[in-house]
Amino acid sequence: METQLYIYNTLVRKKQLFKPIAPPHVGMYVCGPTVYGDAHLGHARAAITFDIVFRYLIHLGYKVRYVRNITDVGHLENDADEGEDKIAKKARIEELEPMEVVKFYTDRYHANMDELNVLHPSIEPTASGHIIEQIELVKEILKNEYGYEADGSVYFDVEKYNRKFEYGKLSGRKIEDLLQNTRELAGQEEKKNGFDFALWKKADSRHIMHWPSPWSEGFPGWHLECSAMAAKYLGDPFDIHGGGMDLLFPHHESEIAQSNAAHGHDPVKFWMHNNMITVNGQKMGKSLNNFITLDEFFTGNHESLVQAYSPMTIRFFILQAHYRSTLDFSNEALQAAEKGLSKLFETYKLIDLLKPAHTSSFDIDAIKNSLENAMNDDFNTPVTIAQLFELSRMINLANDGKASLKQPEIDQLKQIFGLYLFDVLGLIPEKNNSNDQLVNYLMDTILELRKQAKENKDWATSDRIRDELAKLNIQVKDTKEGARWSFN
RNA sequence: GGUACCGUGGCCGAGUGGCUAGGCGGAGGUCUGCAAAACCUUACACGGCGGUUCGAAUCCGUCCGGUACCUCCA
User: Fold this and answer.
1) Protein-contacted positions of strand B (CB under 7 Å)
2) For residue A179, is pLDDT > 90?
3) In angstroms, rounded to a whole number, what is the distance separating the alpha carbons of residues A253 and A233?
4) Is CATH 3.30.160 the right assignment for the domain spanning A278-424?
5) In chain A, where are the structural domains located?
6) CA A374 centroid distance within chain
7) Could you tell me the fold of the domain covering A22-274?
8) Mean pLDDT for all residues in chain A
């Protein structure tokens, strides 16, 4: 494996050469969704970011086990419904069984991810399916005396932990600062310190989801599931842990603490965090209620959207920014992405029509190197895409007879273009929404009639055909080789 | 208040000491019955001020503006 992949590691705040713990195997854990609502653009960004990591590691020849969890219990609400489980709350409102809610939104999440051409993770564990593992982890932490019990709940003793380890190493926080700035939370009076977090929470009568444990009938704490499930499926330590930047603190910080408290060492070598999608410069998020769901994007059914945007447009839009930068949503930006992407697909199709020459104007290997370098530089997909546009330009020039390519280079060009466009970036042409064979046959017939009209200089008929087709969102493109068409 | 991060042309968005980012849009051109599409060419930039340097969008300082985390959040 010649390639030198550099990954930005949040833990050290710089890019580091990626070396797996046990090559050729790579273990990657990514925080998945809490399934109590529809996925929005931010979920797409996280999923696509790590889909790219997954795909590229596979491309490099690694054997990757990719674990992405489904959070279906546990996260506390922090408003009037003191300590009520998020899933349970939603269930109460909709008068559904909690698992019914979980199933409903999990299915919808999966459907959205498939539409975005996000590869399925190797394992997709649920928190509710790993209560036993989580209880065992709490026991270990208690055994090592980094937790304490209070009225059926168990809390993590951050101050004690910090004497031996370093709480805040990932997020760059100091425990003294935390001391000053902790808000009043449910169950605060049971804690030694405001910044202590729950490992196990006793359920009260209003909770529908609860499990027996040595301490109480209750439910696991906020950060426990990831620690428990990652260790179970990827070992301890493992290679890459990913998630949104908003999970950095306290979620990931606490995961590190739990693992150290239980096992005496850090759980993860590389921490990766994708940045947020913004709307008018402000984070798109549940709490701000400014999110647009993926289904709304796909249908255009939202007041902020002037049109529908296809899943591939969304994917391309996200990949046009580097994952560690914020990405500002706007109709203009999405429309630009839509056009740019279709240009790439169109030029890819042109490759097969190129006529080989005896000389060659371009250095395909140079582009190939640029593509590799871009991906190796912390998955720089915007630069990767820029290189694909460079290939696109070559294809068009050759197609116009303004440049030449030899057959082996045409083959190479097609191979590289396809490799990065389809396999690495995961961009695939949209399927037409109709019966392909039938539509193609009809279109051939219609365009043949229009061609005859044109030959007879019957412009009224030929223009009418063009206009009528336009009403069906079918665009007729006259080229030197005859008319082509596409769905708009 | 604490801690980070960001400020690039009309819009989105890479780069991070000297060499074109790229896309969309704009302008000009080629093609065309017309139009569209397609293609080619091209203009437009690095928040303000000061410093380091032969040279800074890129490093340092400072000011201004914005964002994120500190509470569930991708």
Assistant:
1) 1-5, 10-16, 21-25, 31-41, 66-74
2) no
3) 20
4) no
5) 22-274, 278-424, 436-487
6) 19
7) Rossmann fold (3.40.50)
8) 90
Is the CB of A103 less than 7 A from some atom of nucleic acid strand B? no
What would the DSSP string read from start to end of A435-451? Answer: -HHHHHHHHHHHHHHHH
Work out the angle between the directed axes of helices A224-234 and A253-263 (0-180°, nearest 10). 60
In angstroms, rounded to a whole number, what is the distance separating the alpha carbons of residues A195 and A111? 38
Residues A485 and A488: their CA atoms lie apart, in Å, by 9
What integer is the mean pLDDT of A65-87?
Answer: 71
For A276, other C-beta atoms within 10 Å of its C-beta total 20
Write down which residues 407-436 in A have CB closer than 7 A to strand B. none
What's the pLDDT at A79?
Answer: 40
3-state secondary structure of A155: strand
A387 or A78: which carries more pLDDT confidence?
A387
Amino acid at A33: P
- pLDDT, tens only, A185-209: 445 678 888 889 999 999 877 777 8
Q: Please classify residue A202 by burial: count the beta carbons closer than 10 Å to its beta carbon, then call 0-12 exposed, 13-18 middle and 19+ buried.
A: buried
Q: Is the CB of A451 under 7 A from strand B?
A: no
Q: Tell me the per-residue pLDDT of A133-149, one tens digit each, with 9 for 90 and over.
A: 999 999 999 999 999 99
